[in-house]
Design brief:
By secondary structure, this protein is mainly beta. The chain has one helix at 90-103, and strands at 4-11, 14-23, 26-33, 38-43, 46-51, 54-63, 66-75, 79-87. 13% of the residues lie in helices and 63% in strands. The strands form two sheets. The protein has a five-stranded antiparallel sheet with strand order 4-5-6-7-8, with helices on one face. The protein starts with a strand and ends with a helix.
């Protein structure tokens, strides 16, 4: 996804989703323990994750004939805290969608 890397992994029987990368001299990462989030809805081309007052939106869209992914983290559903976005392949979209749909915990 552009300069960002996406990774899914299991640690101590828990499923994680990590987004990390470098931009210039800085390094950023976000780690999501998927069982801590509620899978609240499926948007057109994406997902919404909620945890407390934090909403994370993962969406796919076309821009200038390229497939793009955006992950936006918002406080109370409107105040943007962090955003990652970049180009993604069709295979990348499938990997993200399959992993998110498959590993959400239901209690």
């Amino acid at each position: 996804m552009g300069n960002w890397q996406i990774e899914f992994f299991d640690l101590e029987d828990e499923r994680y989703f990590v987004l990390y990368g470098s931009y210039g001299n800085s390094y950023r990462q976000r780690v999501f323990k998927l069982c801590d989030y509620e899978f609240s809805s499926i948007l057109d081309g994406g997902h919404v994750l909620t945890k407390g007052r934090t909403t994370t939106t993962i969406r796919f869209y076309e821009h200038k004939d390229k497939l793009r992914m955006e992950l936006a983290i918002k406080w109370r559903g409107w105040l943007l805290v962090s955003r990652f976005r970049g180009n993604v392949s069709n295979m990348g979209r499938q990997v993200v969608k399959e992993n998110l749909e498959r590993y959400f915990c239901t209690e």
